[in-house]
Amino acid sequence: MDTQTIAILDFGSQYTQLIARRIREQNVFSVVLPCTAPLAEIRALKPIGLILSGGPSSVYDDDAPAADPQILELGVPVLGVCYGLHYIVHHLGGKVLSAPKREYGHAEVTLEDLSTPLFAGLPPAIQVWMSHGDEAVELPAGFRRVAATSNALAGIANEERGIWAVQFHPEVHHTPLGPQLIRNFLTICGARGDWTAAHFIESTVASIREKVGDGHVICGLSGGVDSSVAAVLVHKAIGNRLTCIFVNNGVLRKNEFVSVQENLRGKLGLNIVGVNASARFLERLAGVTDPEVKRKRIGAEFIAVFEDEAHRIARETLGPEGKLDWLVQGTLYPDVIESSSVKGPSQTIKSHHNVGGLPERMKLKLIEPLRDLFKDEVRRIGRDLGMPEEILSRQPFPGPGLAVRILGEVTPERVALLQEADEIVVSEIKAAGLYTKIWQSFAVLLPVMSVGVMGDQRTYAYTCAIRAVHSEDGMTADWTPLSYDLLKRISNRIVNEVRGINRVVYDITSKPPGTIEWE
After folding, report:
1. Per CATH, which fold does 197-392 belong to?
2. What's the DSSP call for residue 70?
3. How many beta carbons lie within 10 A of that of residue 42, not counting itself?
4. N or C: which end of the chain has fewer CB within 10 A?
5. Whole-Å CA distances, 499 to 98, 417, 454
6. What SS3 class is residue 221?
7. Tens of pLDDT along 20-44?
8. CB neighbour list of residue 303: distance below 8 Å, 6 or more residues apart
C-alpha cells in the first residue's frame, strides 16, 4: 500500500517542523519542502494534501519567498497557516496590508462558521497562538471569512476549491485545540492514518532490497542511535552484504570503542570492523582551537580512514577488482531541514558530521533510511526492530565527539580529563533515574584555569562545565533544573576523582540563544 503524504511548504516559520510532527502524531506521513521547491518535485510526492507554513516576511515585500502559484491548482486540499493565509489571499487576487494592530501571543478566536469541515467538532470560540503583523483586508473571489478575533480576520474558506487558511498557529502547544483542527484537515484529505513503525520498516526494507540489488554496502557506525538503527534496517534487508566500520577517532567517551562493538556485534549480529585510528586524529587536532577547523579536520580524517578501510574490505571480500557500491548514513530529518533554506543559502551554525565527501571521492551511492524521521521516531523504529534499550536510550553524541566539548586545543591529556569527568556526569545522571528523561547531559572542559585549595595546598587547574537539557528533537532546548543535591554529588566527585579539574560550573543557557554543544 502506498504511503500517503502531506506536503508542507516552508516559508521560513520557526514552527514548520511542529506542523510535520503534529501530522505524524496522527500516523500520517508528512514531508517539509522549501517553498521554492519546483512544482514537479511537489507533484512527484503525490501528496494527498498541502500545507503552507507561516513565515517572517510580508507577501508584498520585494524579496518575499517565491513559491510557484500553481501549487494552489494541484487539485488537493490546501491549508494555509499565518503567512500561508496571506500567500493564498495575495496570489488569488485579494489584498494583504500591514495591520494597524499586530497580534502576538495568546488570543481568542471566534469560529463564525462551524459548518466548514475544518472546524468540525470545535466550540464556537477557541484559544490560539498568534504571531503576525499583517492581515488580509480583501478576500479573493469565492472565499469567505469563517473565523475572527476582536481585531482581525482569523480564518478563510473556499470549499469548492478545497482551500482553507487560518491566521493563528494550530501546530503549537499554545493552541490547545490545534490538534483537532489538524485532524480535521487530514480527514478532509482522506488520510488513512496507517503510517506506523511497522509500516515504515516493511516499506523501507523492501525499498533497500530493490535499490541495492546484489550490491555491497558499507556503514560508518558511531555507536549512537541513528547510525545503529540505520545499520539494523539495512542488515535486515541485505544481511552480511553490509559491513559496518567503527572508527576510534581518539575523542570517544571512556571505554566506548570496546563497548559499542560488543553491543552491536554481540547483541545485533552486525558485521563490524573496528579501526583504532586515535593517533591519526589527535595528530591532526594538535594546535587547533577553532571549533569549525576541528570539525572539518575530524571530518576529513574520518573520510581518509574510512576510505582506506573500505578499499581494504573491498579487496579482501570482493577480490582485486571488487568495489563497494553503497554508503549508509544515519541522517535525520532535522539535519535535512536545517540544510535547506527558504530564501537562499542558510547561515552555517556548525558543520554537520555526516560523511559528506565520501560519495564523490569513492563513487558511492547513498542510503539514508532515516532521513524522513525525527529522533523520537527513530527510537520507536528501533524498538519495533527489537533493538536493546541500552542502545536506543543513548543520548545524542556529536560526530566530532569530545573534541567539541574540549574548548581550546585537543590533547591526549585533556581528552583523558574530560572522559573521566563525563563518565561521572553520566553515571550520576543514570543513578538519579534521569538519563532517559533528559535529552543530553554531559561535561565540557573549559580552557579556564583557576586557583583552588585542596588539603591545604594551592591548586591551579581546569574548570569543567556541566550541561543538561530538555528537548523534543534537538532543534530547540531548555536547560534542565537538576537538583542541588545531584549537582553537589557531581561536583564533589569530579573535583575529588579527576586530577586536573578543581572547579565545576553549571550551564543554564537554552537553545536559542545558545546551542546544545559548546562548539
Report:
1. Rossmann fold (3.40.50)
2. G
3. 21
4. N
5. 61, 8, 11
6. strand
7. 989 999 999 998 899 999 999 999 9
8. 355, 357, 358, 361
Q: Of how many residues is the chain composed? A: 519
| CB-count burial class (<10 Å; 0-12, 13-18, 19+) for 31 | middle
| Long-range contact pairs involving 115-119 (C-beta distance under 8 Å, separation at least 24) | 116/146, 116/157, 116/159, 116/164, 117/159, 117/184, 117/187, 117/188, 118/79, 118/146, 118/155, 118/157, 118/164, 118/166, 118/181, 118/184, 118/185, 118/188, 119/146, 119/147, 119/155, 119/181, 119/184
For residue 155, give the C-alpha cell.
480564518
List phi, psi (to 5°) of 70: -65, -10
Q: How far apart are CA 292 and CA 300, in angstroms?
A: 12
For residues 165 and 185, the answer to whether their CB atoms sit within 8 Å is: no
Domain boundaries, the chain: 5-189, 197-392, 411-506
Assessment of whether the complete model's pTM goes beyond 0.90? no
Does 411-506 carry CATH code 2.40.10.10? Answer: no
Catalytic residues: 82, 169, 171
Dump pLDDT digits (tens) for 113-130.
Answer: 999 999 999 999 999 998
Q: Which CATH superfamily is domain 5-189 in?
A: Class I glutamine amidotransferase (GATase) domain (3.40.50.880)
- Does 5-189 match 197-392 in CATH topology? yes
Centroid of chain to Cα 115: 38
Helix locations, 346-404, DSSP H? 358-362, 375-384, 389-392
User: Between 63 and 52, whose confidence is greater?
Assistant: 52
